[in-house]
Design goal:
Length: about 375
């Protein structure tokens, strides 16, 4: 892997949160593949480089990586796959037959986060280190909250570290971590001093679209179902997760009439990002020009100014819970759009709305449903 030196100006765009009194701005990473379309290869290269920063600290069979929902689920899974560790992501979803540890992400629009206990109890005696993986760390309070929850529940003697693409912690926050011997690994240091002011400078309102604004669907739409999916909301080995993602790619490739060519968009849904970006990279390596991003729970203001990162927003019912809002930003025209999701197929309102949003400027759309299985946790 060719090592790249990242700078804040390469990655950081400042957006305005919608009606969030806790923090008026949001730091968007242009190479992360969440809100802004990006080459999957570029994003995964950055994730792999983050993993390398903590390789010497993270002993594979003794380390658990925890990726934070929803923006860091792909980062965490990719880093865990690179390092060969155990992996789990936090979640805001409700899973069948799951018990949870709860903690707060205080500045978020959806503050309550969950960590599924199932499986962690089983492998905890083998674990010596936990690495929390984030897109960005600012105050560090969310991670201290989850550490407090873990220590209260398990009373285990563990070492902790944080790996993030961006680190915006001030000296006081960094000192708190140093005092607790929590290691910090990151690619870029950021300074949030002028971010609130930057978020307020835009005035030309962008385009907001609701389901009722969408035209009747005219696109050619095909749907595919692939079984054998693993759910990273429950503990798994990263190697098994990557193997399942490879199966997803091979099975969809087998079912598709032809492999998409030209300009292709692969779209993930909310917390479901890593299998989708893995799939997107495989299409990219096959020769297509591929972009990747995902729907999100985050309500972000959009503006017309060219230097602002987001200009168009679709507000849609979630594929996971139709009463919940989800958002799609910056959809544009491609030769083929592939939507990959692990949402339950019984709820049609969300997928119908998402397909109609994509069909507003696209004619060829494929939907891939990845149905979960969950194996018993075994040794690596």
């Amino acid at each position: 892997m060719e090592k790249r030196t990242y700078q804040a100006q390469d990655l950081v765009s400042i957006a305005k949160r919608e009606q969030n009194k806790k923090r008026n701005y949001l730091v968007l990473n242009r190479l992360q593949g969440k809100h802004i379309p990006v080459s999957p290869g570029q994003a995964l290269s950055m994730f792999a480089q983050l993993a390398e920063t903590c390789r010497e600290w993270a002993v594979p069979e003794q380390t658990l990586l925890i990726g934070f929902a929803e923006t860091a689920t792909a980062i965490g899974a990719a880093a865990a796959a690179k390092l060969g560790t155990w992996y789990i992501q936090t979640t805001r979803e409700t899973l069948a037959e799951a018990s949870y540890l709860y903690f707060q992400e205080e500045h978020s629009h959806a503050a309550e986060q969950r960590l599924v206990k199932n499986g962690i109890d089983t492998i905890l005696p083998k674990i010596r280190q936990i690495v929390f993986v984030e897109d960005e760390v600012t105050t560090g309070n969310t991670i201290l909250n989850i550490i407090s929850t873990l220590e209260k529940e398990y009373k285990a003697n563990l070492s902790y570290a944080v790996a993030s693409i961006l680190n915006g912690m001030d000296k006081e926050a960094q000192q708190r971590y140093q005092n607790r011997n929590i290691r910090l690994f990151y690619l870029v240091k950021t300074d949030h001093f002028d971010y609130p002011k930057k978020a307020e400078q835009y005035k030309q309102t962008g385009t907001y679209l609701l389901p009722e604004d969408l035209p009747p669907r005219q696109a050619h739409v095909l749907e595919y179902t692939v079984s054998g999916g693993l759910d990273a909301r429950k503990l798994l080995s990263a190697a098994a997760y990557e193997k399942a993602c490879l199966h997803l790619w091979e099975e969809v490739k087998r079912q598709l009439p032809t492999l998409p060519k030209g300009n292709v968009l692969v779209l993930g849904t909310e917390e479901f990002m890593y299998p989708a970006i893995f799939f997107a990279r495989m299409i990219e390596e096959a020769g297509a020009n591929v972009w990747f991003h995902a729907t999100t729970r985050s309500p972000i203001a959009v503006f017309k100014e060219a230097q602002y990162p987001l200009h168009t927003r679709y507000e849609l019912p979630s594929l996971y819970e139709k009463e919940r809002r989800t958002f799609l930003y910056e959809i544009r025209a491609y030769d083929h759009v592939l939507i990959l999701t692990d949402a339950p197929k019984k709820e049609r309102a969300g997928i119908e709305a998402l397909v109609r949003a994509a069909a507003a400027c696209n004619q060829e759309i494929s939907v891939v449903w990845w149905e979960h299985r969950q194996e018993e946790i075994k040794g690596m």
